[in-house]
């Protein structure tokens, strides 16, 4: 079953085509990494999946419906790259607010909140105001709010930003647990090493167009055949230097891969 289907979706702002004829499917129980440099169209695509924008041309379907419809949105969990939460709330109060917006009962909110606060490692800070949280702690709170209503589709925008190594491992394990439960995860990231570790497939976007999509196992290997090499190759000569700078800024490591595979890269 396809949870997300984009068919020739295009979105322009004036003369700039942020997304240009994008066709992509995401299957149930799949973890798909959505990769590209800044300005490639990743965030615009996410906003279309969330129903914030409608495509100018083409079509999209999320969980078999229209993401602009409340019934579809209730099945989606979203964690933005930078979340601006009310600073004078605690994480429990924040989750109570979001749970109410999702139509959860007070008992459902309490049970899910306590479970998720513990799961993301915020038990000791559960009664602390969010204004006193670090960047990493706010990311943990964002993970909890995205999972609160047990969504079928989880959309994550740069989810590993600001997390310390332990939190990264815990969040990675959590994403894999969600996959085992049949949940679908779509995440946009600069973190190529994280994508190699947890994704079933990756899609690479360049100037609003899909330039490569395939299984991670096809592109990881001995340093000559890995996700970073494919990423740089798909960007072309003009984009390589910018991509290398972006990778360095966001922690990418050239020539390394966490998996081994003898598959040949076929862009």
Instruction: Detail the poorly predicted runs.
Output: 242-267
Query: What is the approximate shape?
Result: globular
Number of helices, where a helix is a run of at least 4 consecutive DSSP H or I residues: 9
- What is the CA-based Rg, rounded? 19 Å
What's the architecture of the domain at 1-75 and 186-261, going by CATH?
Answer: 3-Layer(aba) Sandwich
CATH topology of the domain at 1-75 and 186-261: Rossmann fold
At a glance:
This protein is of the alpha/beta class and about 270 residues long. It contains nine helices and nine strands. It has a domain at about 1-75 and about 185-260: 3-Layer(aba) Sandwich (Rossmann fold), CATH 3.40.50.
Give the SSE map.
Blueprint: E1 2-13, E2 16-27, E3 31-35, H1 42-49, E4 57-62, H2 70-73, E5 76-79, H3 91-101, H4 106-119, H5 135-147, E6 153-157, H6 165-180, E7 184-189, H7 192-198, E8 201-206, E9 209-215, H8 227-235, H9 237-249
3D architecture notes:
The structure is a single chain. With 267 residues, the protein is of the alpha/beta class. The chain has a domain at 1-75 and 186-261: P-loop containing nucleotide triphosphate hydrolases (Rossmann fold, 3-Layer(aba) Sandwich), CATH 3.40.50.300. The chain is 36% helix and 24% strand. The protein has nine helices and nine strands. The chain has helices spanning 42-49, 70-73, 91-101, 106-119, 135-147, 165-180, 192-198, 227-235, 237-249, and strands spanning 2-13, 16-27, 31-35, 57-62, 76-79, 153-157, 184-189, 201-206, 209-215. The strands form two sheets. The chain has a six-stranded mixed sheet with strand order 5-6-7-3-8-9, sandwiched between helices. A three-stranded antiparallel sheet has the order 2-1-4, with helices on one face. A hairpin with a 2-residue loop joins strand 8 and strand 9. Helix 3 (91-101) crosses helix 4 (106-119) and helix 8 (227-235) crosses helix 9. The longest helix has 16 residues, at 165-180. It is globular, with a radius of gyration of 19 Å. The protein starts with a strand and ends in an 18-residue tail after the last helix.
